[in-house]
Write a structure and sequence with these properties.
The chain is of the alpha+beta class and about 575 residues long.
Length: about 575
């Protein structure tokens, strides 16, 4: 066997695997130096009679740099862009009566008394001792429009009652009003108590009862003086759909009545007309079904140890209510967590998934940097008690109630899923495997997808460890993108560059370098033979890839370090051979 053929045979069979070997017959019996995973040293002596001297091609170093490295797994990036998926249950604070739960109980034939007492443990129904309430309708106003479709009256602070003609009147803090048929408005001493005639008074909405207007801190304030039951006529249909089952409407009437009396303010008014107390939209919002529910339960309230209970209510529990202690930090004997088996009829029983990027979460939470992880702390009912938000600028704990407001969640009963994918730190060499690292926590159905043309296709189901960390081996044929997906939510895709496999054969003469390229589809591609010059590379020769994947370049080899390079194109990034160090003597 000739020296040239023996050299090629050895190089082709053993050099790619970098295994220490003794040179076969036909070579001088010199032992190879020990090979590390990054380098091997080959000494080849070839006689060149035409030149009447010896060419020594020595120190062929496989330095494992970039895409020219031998096939091995890429190192995952240390960080990735996380997508957070929040999936939850229910709507509202979760304490007290679930309205959809009450509706579900009513559909199962349970009467209103049992419904109410289920949600407020240890309570009983009793009689209310208050028959009228004062509801704040407006405050801090520069002007107010008060009127009625029929003639009405107004009593001033001196106790004088004046007649007012039907119509709408604009009041200012001067409290001037046309009364008793006078052609011009005159100032009346306040407060003024407007009393209806044969039609209801109106201040934006129509209201039963009377309306008192006074001046506080230079601005107008209006308070509706109304009977408790008449107040409930305007509350129950504003808080629960009037088409619901009568027993559910009765339960709402009892709970609303109790809540109104238990949360009365002191001072100029008792209640707000909105969610600070209960939504109260007045006479025009009343419905026969809800009025009947109020009448059927007239005067009934929820009592705990003889006192009217604070009967909180909300839309949907998600299957179990929360305790006051868990939500607000203060235990209340009758506001404990109870099962809510029929709440499942609610369209908000389950919600989500809602996806957030780390950047968007940081913006919504008013944090600097980017959120990289969410670590929940649960309460006894399974809801989020607080959330440790890990960001690029530090970690903070946010109480669940604040979190719900800032992000706009329906409840604090939710789970946090995290999807994050990191691309290999170096290109994957054609025919070898790359490694994707990432996180798929709290999402058992996550899958890996690969972009195939313009279509995303599932590669396989993701199996993460107990902490959610995952490592995925891939073998992409060309540069492509991968992403993690769960349901309708997908994490940002990562680009995985693929470089062609480019290798030298063992040099046989001082004026040629041969090698091969894979895949064969790169036939015709330009191969640059480059020589290192300082920190950079210069092109010493140029050739093309043959149809069988080989290339041959003619050049005069001199002392130095060489490589072959193929530029990017055809779905591949640039690829190079391991470097070849040449010494001549």
């Amino acid at each position: 066997m000739s020296v040239d053929k023996a050299t090629d045979a050895w190089w082709n069979e053993f050099a790619p695997s970098m295994v220490t070997q003794t040179m076969r017959s036909g070579f001088r019996k010199e032992k190879m130096l020990h090979m590390t995973p990054f380098a091997s040293l080959v000494r080849v002596l070839a006689g060149v009679s035409s030149m009447r001297r010896t060419l020594v091609i020595a120190s062929v170093l496989l330095l494992g740099a970039g895409s020219a490295a031998p096939a091995r797994l890429g190192t995952p990036a240390t960080t990735g862009t996380a997508t957070f998926i929040l999936t939850g249950h229910g709507w509202g604070h979760g304490v007290g009566m679930s309205q959809y739960g009450a509706y579900g109980y009513a559909q199962k034939g349970v009467n209103y008394a049992k419904i109410v007492l289920h949600y407020f443990s240890g309570t009983e129904l009793g009689a209310a001792t208050v028959s009228r309430v004062r509801v704040l309708l407006a405050s801090g106003a520069a002007t107010l429009k008060v009127g009625s479709a029929a003639d009405f009256r107004v009593r001033d602070a001196a106790g004088v009652i004046h007649d007012v003609t039907a119509g709408t009147y604009t009041l200012t803090p001067a409290l001037k009003l046309k009364v008793d048929g006078a052609p011009t408005a005159s100032a009346l001493p306040g407060p003024l108590l407007f009393q209806p005639g044969t039609a209801a008074l109106q201040l934006k909405h129509q209201y039963r009862g009377s309306i008192q207007v006074d001046v506080a801190s230079g601005k107008l304030r209006a308070v509706n003086m109304v009977g408790l039951e008449q107040y409930l006529y305007g509350v129950v249909p504003s808080e629960m759909p009037y088409t619901w089952h009568p027993e559910a409407l009765k339960a709402q009437a009892v709970v609303a009545r109790s809540y109104a009396l238990a949360t009365r303010k002191t001072g100029a008014f008792d209640l707000y007309p909105d969610t600070r107390s209960q939504v109260y939209l007045g006479l025009e919002h009343e419905k026969p079904s809800t009025n009947a529910a109020v009448d059927a339960t007239a005067g009934k309230v929820v009592l705990f140890e003889g006192q009217v209970a604070k009967t909180f209510f909300f839309s949907t529990s998600g299957g179990r209510t929360a305790s006051a202690e868990d939500v607000w930090g203060q235990a209340v004997p009758y506001l404990v967590s109870v099962p809510d088996p029929y709440d499942s009829i609610s369209p908000y029983h389950d919600w989500g998934p809602f996806a957030f990027t780390g950047t968007k979460l940081a913006r919504m939470l008013k944090l600097k940097g980017r959120v990289v992880d969410l670590q929940p702390e649960l309460d006894s009912s399974g809801r989020i008690k607080s959330l440790n938000v890990v960001g690029t600028k530090g970690t903070i704990a946010i109480p669940s109630a604040d979190l719900r407001k800032r992000i706009g969640l329906r409840s604090t009963w939710f789970s946090v899923g995290v999807l994050s994918l990191n691309a290999p730190s170096t290109p994957v060499v054609y025919g070898s495997r790359g490694r994707l690292s990432g996180i798929a926590r709290g999402l058992p159905d996550a899958v890996l997808q690969q972009l195939d043309g313009n279509e995303w296709k599932a590669v396989g189901t993701v199996k993460a460890d107990k902490d959610g960390a995952l490592t995925l081996l891939i073998k992409p044929p060309v540069t492509t993108r991968y992403r993690l997906s769960t349901g309708k939510v997908t994490a940002p895709a990562v680009r995985v560059p693929v470089a062609p496999l480019v290798r030298f054969y063992a040099p046989r003469t001082p004026d040629q370098l041969r090698g091969y390229v894979r895949p064969l589809s790169l036939a015709g591609a330009t191969v640059q033979i480059q020589r290192q010059q300082g920190p950079g590379w210069i092109t010493a020769a140029q050739t093309t890839v043959a149809t069988d994947g080989t290339f041959l370049a003619t050049l005069q080899l001199t002392n130095g370090v060489y490589r072959a390079r193929i530029g990017s194109g055809h779905g591949y990034v640039a690829g190079t051979t391991p470097v070849l160090q040449v010494s001549t003597s």
